[in-house]
Design brief:
By secondary structure, the protein is mainly α. It has helices at 2-10, 15-42, 50-56, 58-98, 106-131, 138-141, 148-171, 175-181, 186-199, 201-222, 232-274. 81% of the residues lie in helices and 0% in strands.
Length: 278
């Protein structure tokens, strides 16, 4: 972990594709959710207390829930198309930095162009598997009456789907690293990524746990600032910077982990071929 921090600190350019990725993600998020919420608000009375109306109208809460589900789906599709370019750029720069090779801003375009199709296809496959978890929402969305009981059923479905998304994210987290670092095709990338995850599950889980703890601590600092108009902007700025740093560090840590562990796999394979383990 300490070496990963040093690698990132010596090569702050690694943060560039993460920053660009965040900018595009925020713009898409604002456009998609903003457009859908604007259409919803247009149908409500002017100068109304929206929170009161939502709490007193279960059918409207269902409409809001559906809007967020649709908006989330559109956001995932849009971000997949864009981020499939920046993800290999981040991993490629982290790979060069880990190997003590000087990184360059052109690496973003080079790795992005070379691996865009493969990363895009792998993301489409992972997202398809992820959206299969939407079946957890069917009981709540298809309820005969749009009551608060049905809304609670929908809320439970969202929690189940959220947990499913988290598990899928962890299980397939190493696929993109396998594709870029080992320069493999998509199917082979899935095979090697899943094998790596299964073999070094504890290492992967520890990094995910550290990232989760860092994210929680960041929110503990930032969220209270959002309640005051005087600290909102500062809190948002701190949160954005820390999010970018955490994302960049995560990429460097996983890149170093993958490089280190595949050396062990290669050495083990060489020993087996040489008969040393027989």
């Amino acid at each position: 972990m300490r070496e990963g921090w040093s690698t990132w600190r010596r090569n702050l350019r690694i943060t560039t594709p993460v920053v660009l990725q965040q900018i595009f993600s925020l713009v898409m998020l604002a456009l998609i959710f903003g457009y859908m919420l604007a259409n919803l608000v247009d149908g409500l009375p002017e100068n109304a207390n929206y929170m009161t109306i939502l709490l007193e109208t279960p059918s409207l809460l269902f409409d809001v829930s559906r809007i967020f589900i649709y908006a989330f789906a559109y956001y995932v599709i849009a971000s997949t198309i864009v981020n499939s370019f920046f993800i290999p750029g981040s991993i490629g720069m982290a790979l060069k930095a880990t190997r003590s090779i000087k990184t360059d801003f052109r690496d973003i375009a080079t790795y992005g162009k070379d691996y865009y199709t493969r990363i895009l296809l792998s993301n489409v496959i992972i997202n398809t598997i992820t959206f299969m978890g939407v079946i957890a929402l069917i009981p709540g969305l298809s309820a005969a009456e749009e009551s608060f009981d049905s809304l609670m059923l929908l809320a439970y479905g969202l929690l189940i789907w959220g947990f499913y998304i988290f598990m899928i994210s962890i299980a397939f987290s190493m696929v993109k690293y396998a594709i870029v670092i080992e320069d493999t095709r998509v199917i082979e990338g899935f095979r090697r990524g899943l094998y790596f995850f299964k073999t070094y599950f504890l290492d992967v889980f520890i990094i995910w746990l550290i990232v989760l703890i860092m994210t929680v601590l960041m929110n503990v600092v930032v969220i209270p600032m959002s309640f005051s108009e005087y600290t909102q902007v500062v809190g948002y700025g701190i949160g954005t910077i820390l999010t970018i740093v955490i994302m960049a560090l995560t990429i460097v840590w996983f890149t170093r982990l993958y490089l280190d562990r595949i050396k062990n796999i290669a050495e083990l394979g060489a020993l087996k071929e040489g008969g040393a383990l027989e």
